[in-house]
């Protein structure tokens, strides 16, 4: 019987992705020179439990190894990777990825290799996969990255994405030179089934939500990608955002308001890994990450509340916050950690005194998380939705929450050039993240004054 053939579109043969001939083939090699870089990385939004500002890599240079995959993925690369990992079976291993993509099916094989080495409940050989700032992991590489987690890794820190890295997903495509060739139906369908099965496995295992697959389906040519940045959206996808700059530093309690802490708690609840977002909610969160309006008097002081309660740890709803002797704010989101004793009225929910020490359960609030609540994720001012006009505004007009100095630069060490009073209307034009006691700064203007003010006293 004559075999039936037909012409297939790129969407069906997405596994046949081939990089241009000028693209350099992947190199797979040991690169422990990256040790200092990995040791500098800290969590931005926590790992298995909510947290932040903690170091990711605690291994010494002597007891772990780093494998670098750099260049276009080609057939046989998974086998090369397997040999390097097996050269020392029991050494904790990290894989750093920097690839424009390549053969989709080989990307799946690399992902399967990652998963095999995540076996073992105590200490799996593969400790994590990483994409570093200034580097990229696209197409087949992104799929391999996503596949690195097993079902028991749900919510854990395995797939690390540094702020400033490029992680891009799309569906495969046929090179122009063969896109119009005839292909056997069976071969085409099997290829499509294999690729669909790998995406569905991510969803079934719970290591990535279905929205990731849906977003990838929207991008079907070699230059179109759905980029995931190192923000709360990445954490929703099961990835772990990290950084080595001011974003990863802990937030200090001085000047924080009760309202800001309540907004932080609400933000944490909205992005808990167990929460299932609709597509509309996900799109909204990606473009609108300002803190929630909890109502009430905005300048009630967080430090004063802790003093009033007679302790350093308090609970609001299912969020527990504390302040260290040095002023670092730490938290966890887990209603089962501890029961509260006495409670006092709060602006959003009652604040309750905690009757035991919880240092082992709490993690520092990172500047990155606080900046997201203030509308300055990664140091970029997010648009604010104006419900009256029904439009997104690139700049905001708000009333200053407290008296605050205006400075020439976003730093406590810069020159003071003006002063705002509480309630004064200001236009927020830009924002920045700084390595100082304030962490987040707004560029503001009011009347004939213009400069930088600490965001915690404005928002």
Description:
The protein is globular, with a radius of gyration of 24 Å. It contains eleven helices and 26 strands. Helix 2 packs parallel to helix 3 and helix 3 runs parallel beside helix 4. Helix content is 23%, strand content 25%. With 459 residues, the protein is α+β, with helices and mostly antiparallel strands. It folds into three domains: 239 residues, 2-enoyl-CoA Hydratase, Chain A, domain 1; 111 residues, no CATH class; 84 residues, SH3 Domains (SH3 type barrels, Roll). Strand 14 and strand 15 form a beta hairpin. A seven-stranded mixed β-sheet has the order 2-4-5-6-8-12-3. Strands 16-17-13-14-15-18 form a six-stranded antiparallel β-sheet, covered by helices on one side. The N terminus is likely disordered.
Brief synopsis:
The chain is α+β, with helices and mostly antiparallel strands and 459 residues long. It is built from 11 helices and 26 strands. Helix content is 23%, strand content 25%.
The multimeric state of the shown protein is: single chain
Largest sheet: 7 strands, mixed
CATH names the topology of the largest domain as: 2-enoyl-CoA Hydratase, Chain A, domain 1
Percentage of residues in DSSP E strands:
15-25%
